[in-house]
Fold each of these.
Amino acid sequence: MFFSKKIEPIALDIGSTFIKLVQLKGSNRNYQLMKFGMIPLPPEVIVEGAVMDAGRVVDAIKELLAAHKVATKEVVISVSGSSVIIKRVSVADMTDEELAESIKWEAEQYIPFSIDDVNVDFQKLGAGATEGQADVLLVAVKKDKINDYVNLVKEAGLDPVVMDVDAFALANMYELNYDIEAGTTALLNIGASVMNINILKDGMSIFTRDITVGGNRYTEGLQRDFGLTNEDAEKVKRGESVEGADKDQISAVMSSVTEDIVAETQRSFEFFRSTTGSEQVSRVFVSGGCALIGHFTSILSERLEIPVEVANPFKNVKIDPKKFDAAIIEESAPLCAVAVGLAIRRPGDR
């Protein structure tokens, strides 16, 4: 979004617990998986999207690139969280060239940061509700956030050619793999510390929001209540048994956290309806680590009273079984929604 430059870059989704690498070849919903890999990050290296230990992240990226023999230097990355502002606004209708000239001044009234501290971009959506107006999707990201992530990949020897936003990458993943249906669809990517929400109406984004809630709440609850190490807490989250941890008590903690995250989701959906005047969401796709938590999607569906499905970002991607282990791809798929969405971005597109 903020950078443009040739073909088949790699995509890196730099999360709090994993860095995901995906490279796709192709176009127009006809893609083939070329590279795929993940590497875990120690806790506290990235916290709620803020890079706390750049050196260890750079080392992890280098290790991931070496393990998968990545030759290209071009990379697509993304950001999310409180440093990202996305607004659908109405402005005087003008050409893209004119809007590019004036968007910085238009943006000032919608952004809670100094305009000099952000990079601004936009996408024209079409005619506005009143004559002479146009609907525009306005995006602003704090420059220091962009610089942090750009510097990480540059220090790892890569050249960032596209900078995107997690919520938009989710929409790209959805468009690649699923038929756009009439009505309102919510895409939720619930990672370790941030939930990305992108609500689409007839395939067009009408509401986005990032919330600082995620799977780390399970880990923290298990560590607090049972004195588990981070490693053991992560095992319990995945449904594995750990010595000294009572299954019934663990189930109670897990259920409590699930209810908290579901309640946060419900509040966001209520906020969406109250601020946009739109009808209720008709279906939900969930990705991220929380999609792998036992009963999470069924409880979310029950509370929202609408269908909830775990997104499969590789659903419409050709995968050579001789090059990739199908079981690993299937197990990892819910974690890779943003990475796949980034992997179809090309320098110069919008």
Note: The first strand starts at residue 10 and ends at 14.
Amino acid sequence: MPAKLIRRYIFQVNRYDTNGYLLILNQLERGFKMALTGLEIYKQLPKKNCGECGVPTCLAFAMALAAGKAALDTCPYVTDAARENLESAAAPPIKAIKFGNGSVMGDETVMFRHDKTFYHETTVIIQISDALSDDEVSAKLAEINGLEFDRVGLHYSVEGVAVVNDSGDAARFAKVAAAVAAGTEKSLVLISNDPEALKAAVVPLAARKPLIGEANADNYEAVVTIAKENSVPVILKAEGLDALSDLVEKAVTLGYKEFVLDPGSKTTVQKLADLTQLRRLAIKKKFRTFGYPVIVFTNHDNPLDEIMEASVYVCKYASAIVLKTSAKAHILPLMALKQNLYTDPQKPIQVEEKLYAIGEVNENSPLYLTTNFSLTYYSVEGEVESTKIPSYIIPVNTEGTSVLTAYAAGKYEPELMWETMQKLGVPETLKHRNVIIPGYVAVVTAKLKEISGWNVIVGPRESSGIVAFAKTLK
């Protein structure tokens, strides 16, 4: 393609992004080869149209493979030569990198979760400086180990600990890394610009498969070699996408590809721009040089500012974030945001449909009905607990939708309510015949009373009204 046409095409695609424009332009003009098209893949397939891959024809399979919606391994007749040629087309646009205690980064296929879903949550890592005293290291590690949270029925925690070589002393770095490894099961990250310090710390801990770094333009050969020899992933850092692209290409020539990228941006705004460009170039442009997970380090020292900064990176598109603060009050909001973003929007969080006992219930305890959408149930549960009146709650299975949404979709009808009450043995459990329903579905009162024979009490519309409402119950 003539350079003039290349420039015109890229300018149209990236006319609002000069950095992205220049980067792709430079790569194309240097002979960079984009991912294979469906037709190019089809030419290398056996063309049997056997359907054993789950797709009716080889052409359809090739198109699915090019779109990242099929795996080459599902074709039983592909030749070894074709497999080698098609490796890049079959690989996900962002490589999956595994490290530590089951931590996985990358392996994402979309820009927005509503297109499909996000698979791997942003890995949250807390750093420990080796310049701290032994007692301070122990205290910091204990605080990190205590970062465990329960929210809407789910348990989550900080995934990793990063040991940073601020002391500049290789022996001290290795000692603190060993102490941290002995004191936690969390995934490890070892950060130093000194290859000798990294080697001293990594070799004894290679079995823990730590993520190491950072390799830059000056030390990449030594650091990547250490990573390769110990079979651990390595962070490549360069300021700016052009410089990062050059560094990745040089590192690949060393025969290793277990990389995590750090664009080295100085400000939050620039990091956001770089993270977005990296994701877009990998997903939309199939730019394999940037087809790796991305790690960022926060800049702010004030904990609240740091959490606000980290929130930006969770939203767009950090695979891992390294933080300084380790206070529960600071970390909890970030973890809640992460959980919300990485919940599959097509599969809402749900609680089990069963008869929940709140407090020391008996046969005369009130009975509340709600839905099994996790946020709805736990909002109701919290308010019922606050009444100090032992009560039962049934979250009717509405496929994880809230009260109004479920009713509008025909999933919260009186027939289902009564069927659920019977299935869970409510008539045998309770002596009274009263059931409390959400105020938003007061319209079902007469029908539910007719089919069940129970006295139907209309409760408040919002869970926040339950405490005041409970005082009116006899």
Note: The radius of gyration is 28 Å.
Amino acid sequence: MKIGRFGIVALLAAPGIWAQSIDGLWDASLKQGATEIPFKIGFSGTGSDIQGWFFNGEDKLISSGGTYENGSLVLNFDSYLGVLKLTLKDGALDGDWSTSRGGRSGAATPVHAVRDVPQPAPKTKAPNVAGVWVIEDVKSSKGEKAWNLVLTQKGNDLTASILRVDGDTGALTGGWQDGKFVVSHFDGSRPALWAITPQADGTLSVDQGSGRGGGTIIAIRPEEVKAKGLAAPTDPNSFTSVKDVTQPFPFSFPDLDGKIVSSTDERFQGKVVLINITGSWCPNCHDEAPFLAEIYNKYHSKGLEIVALSFEEADQVANPTRLRAFIKQNGIKYTVLMGGETGSAKEKLTQAQNWNAWPTTFFVGRDGLVKGVHAGFPSSGSGILYEQEKKEFVERVESLLAQTTSARK
């Protein structure tokens, strides 16, 4: 079909065509208390074919459904029980983000967005702060004495993440502004805004704001930690153990169809089994699930089984809509069982010793005994430490698969 000059003018003027399209990248912000936290969000499509996504570094959390009609946008993120509602007016999107947990809808968080516009490069060159730093004197309910601060830098752009024993903060991204790096994050969870300022003594001052987990912390290089005899970050491979290494790790819980699955079932005998303690409410569990799905698909035919014991809020135990969405979102084909309510986990995990990190994975050998435990899991925001943990995880799985110890009786 050929469109003349006047037809093009009519199309450009028509509402609901180009004027109403929201395709592309947008600069958004949400309010956490009095703090405006900037983040990126992308959109594609229209009507019931609309799709949106949050970013965790280069990773995307893609919407599970929604609509965009007459300037009104509704996007569902079912794996978080989250809903984004925005209205387009005068070139801006305004509305809110809300989530449900424990059967209750959380307070709606105001969201504002405008189309992404490339910013001019800063006039000053940022100093090089890339690498792994250590934060000492941390306040941790898990008994940690130090955390890792992982910084990945490209010119004046910076990605930052604090890695604890249970996982990280997500990937905060940003750049060099007025003598400091300003980085932020929101991917449906873990909203944060930091200012990272190089100090004259070679340390970094990390201002986390005044919200939850806020305050200013100091990061130093690992060589200083060693030279001064300071505490190192907790090793996730030695944090949790089992009470009796000569006994199996028992479980017996229903799957999402109500069928009881137990550690003594024939399908687990003589296999390498990863028992993964998880919950669909847990951001670090969302970080780990795609990796577990990947290694299950690769090694299942060689004798690997993965069993996720998911502990949820009461309403999700009764009707696990979020967990089902979590399974779908991450392409999970391994066994997922409903462990019960989160508060009952310690009572039910009778073999777990010093367990309090979500997620945690117990590595069971072909003889049915636990050969190791890994607490937590980082996101890709933890850069080289993320790659290192994945590599060690896979090496442990391959080592166990290579063993020919007979199955337990």
Note: DSSP finds seven helices and 27 strands in the chain.
